[in-house]
């Protein structure tokens, strides 16, 4: 397949190469040590341009490096004649002995385009406004020229960021609208504001369950969903503040049912909330605990230093808007609504883990939000939101394989999504078909969710559900720990922005092989679980 290209092993000739420096035309400066994977990758790309579908117009820079016991994965983004390339990312895999063995490439053709647009910037801006799918457009940014290499033949395009409001009238919208620079035709309009609930989906949520600081203070909190927990705060001039120095100074604030301003929670005795929505700090406790727990999960389980990979904490904003039945990740922070009648904040732990996992995706594979990649994007968030819940093992919110089961978003006690049999929600796919890539990512995610459930728990009845297979086969599960390790390794080291479900099969098989060995029970389980959801 085009996504993973096996290459002949090569030794390296360059050393001392900067992480953000272009690769094109770099001079060899001597033998690189085997423990310098960036040098290995850079020299490999220089000498094997065709393996990354490169041309003389390409230049590259490193955007991430993941090291493991079996080597390193060096992730690149690409420009063409100075223009950013959408879908131009690739990963070079360097073995532990300093040799390259394969590359994962997002695009499927080399770029050869003329950089002179046939459509003026002003016309592209107008077309972007008309092509945006936001219910309300408030501001249209300045278009920039790019190369769109995400699907098929690369073309010169204008990319414009359009700001507005989504169909529910409250969720912000930030869409990347890409128009053909020759014809003016809109190629895509992808939303960057991620929500656990599809905007426009029926939601009838009833009431849910009832700076300048030097060191962390051990506070106590009573959350709406997590119950009584310990949270880290700081002591400031105004009393204790809901700022967590143990987790990158993640801050939790009260939006006071507005959409723009937010006040950091402050308390005089470091005891927060009363477990009900009557105390505004109760929702803050859930969000603060959720941010810290998600941070700890990725760090302790996968060795990732927080959501962004740099130790920085995540801001959490609660009590957003009026009657807002959703939550969202906007690329830098979490925002939670209070639900119908402002009586049911959507601050459940797996919702928090789901949304912040969008941030992990953004800083690793960068899965697009359309086609199969969109479903894999949402599945990744459901998978890790669930794993955060298991990591917390909270007595008030016992772990399971349903999403948002405590926020009662449907008003009848049913969860938002099921992983054992995704179609039980009335819209999600259990099995891959030609319909999946054209569907909303919240529903096409069902294929990835079903795969992961089968991989972890197996088919048929288990403690967490009764999972059928699409072909009547039987799958034996390998447990949460191994399943999550495989998915994270595939996401961070192999997957690319244009990932398909077929690619994900190949990449998770490779990740399982790296972790557990060729032909291992884990590899066989990965293959069986994908076959069981019709991804062959």
From TrEMBL:
CDD domains (UniProt xref): M4_TLP
Region (Disordered), start-end ranges: 201-221
Domain Peptidase M4, chain residue ranges per copy: 219-361
Class of this enzyme: hydrolase
Domain Peptidase M4 C-terminal: 365-535
Transmembrane parts of this sequence: none
Cellular component aspect of the GO annotation: extracellular region
Record's signal peptide: 1-21
GO process annotations (BP): proteolysis
Cofactor: Zn(2+)
Cellular compartments annotated: Secreted
Main localisation: secreted
Pfam families for this protein: FTP, Peptidase_M4, Peptidase_M4_C
Biased composition (Low complexity): 210-219
GO molecular function: metal ion binding; metalloendopeptidase activity
Key words, A-Z: Hydrolase, Metal-binding, Metalloprotease, Protease, Secreted, Signal, Zinc
Domain named FTP: residues: 58-104
Domain of life: Bacteria
Residue positions of the active site: 355, 442
EC numbers on record: 3.4.24.-
Function: Extracellular zinc metalloprotease.
Family: Belongs to the peptidase M4 family.
Name assigned to this protein: Neutral metalloproteinase
